[in-house]
Design goal:
By secondary structure, the chain is mostly beta strands. It is built from 1 helix and 19 strands. The chain folds into 2 domains: 118 residues; 155 residues, NPCBM/NEW2 domain (Jelly Rolls). The longest helix has 38 residues.
Length: 280
């Protein structure tokens, strides 16, 4: 009986050691395997998103690897990166929705115990990164004329809001960077850009009306038409939409050369339209 306390203490220690072994074997070992895989696969130009945010320290052993968190996703510029790796601990991150990347093209998925690893191909073309080299014009019954270039904007009318250019606006309570293109009544805004060599023809068109649009006074409506290689590919009507709409479309030929976006409205009044186009 005198040895009973010692036996209890030893039993508790054995249980703790056993649980520690189980934790390491089933979780840390999985994380170790994940790290080893990434070390072999990661290349210059890759970036990693770890979910949930507070667990990202588990992966920081990958020296020099760019890592960002879901809370940063509205402010991280992914331009220039080729691939995005998303690591999700399914025990702690239950949401099936992944910020920022729900519309990107997934290349492959792998599982390492509770850790899901998914690789996404990042866009090869982002129109918002080409704003300074756009060709912007406005067309009406009197013909077509180029919009006036003013620093980082293209002035298409006399009013302060009648321009095309990068801005940051409130879209359904979230600040987002996009291309502002306020339509002008009875006129057509035409935005043109060359496309880089090697695109597969897959595109994603992002569009929204800013929270400052006249939802409560009139029915703001913006019509868009997209042409690839001068061929009509996609058209849309954005109306009373307080959040981002993301539309995918595919051009049937590889290596498209040019894109043209035409923007009109049946009535100009607080049509605070913002958009972006990505190509893969």
């Amino acid at each position: 009986m005198k040895d009973l306390p010692k036996i209890i203490i030893l039993s508790v220690l054995v249980i703790i050691l056993s649980l520690s072994f189980v934790y390491f074997y089933f979780f840390k070992l999985d994380l170790y395997r994940l790290k080893q895989h990434l070390k072999k696969d990661i290349k210059r130009g890759d970036i990693v998103l770890f979910l949930p945010d507070w667990e990202k320290n588990d992966i920081l052993a990958l020296d020099g690897l760019p890592i960002f968190t879901s809370s940063q996703n509205q402010y991280v510029n992914l331009y220039g990166f080729k691939r995005l790796f998303v690591i999700k601990n399914t025990m702690h991150y239950k949401s099936s929705s992944i910020p920022l990347i729900n519309e990107m093209f997934s290349n492959k998925k792998m599982n390492f115990g509770p850790y899901n690893l998914e690789e996404f191909r990042l866009p090869d073309f982002n129109l918002s990164d080409k704003v300074e080299r756009l060709r912007v014009s406005v067309e009406d019954e009197n013909g077509r004329r180029s919009c006036t270039k003013e620093k980082d904007k293209y002035r298409c009318g006399d009013m302060g809001w009648q321009y095309v250019g990068l801005t940051t606006v409130d879209i359904n309570g979230q600040m987002s960077e996009c291309i502002w293109a306020h339509p002008i009544g009875e006129k057509r805004i035409i935005i043109e850009s060359d496309l880089p060599v090697g695109l597969s023809g897959n595109f994603i068109f992002y569009r929204a009306l800013a929270s400052t649009s006249g939802f409560d006074t009139v029915k703001p409506e913006v019509q868009t038409a997209i042409y690839i290689n001068d061929k009509p590919q996609f058209s849309s009507v954005t109306i009373r939409q307080r959040d981002w709409i993301k539309d995918r479309f595919k051009f049937p030929e590889s290596n498209p050369k040019s894109v043209r976006i035409e923007i009109t409205t049946p009535q100009e009044y607080k049509n605070h339209f913002c958009f972006n186009l990505e190509g893969f």
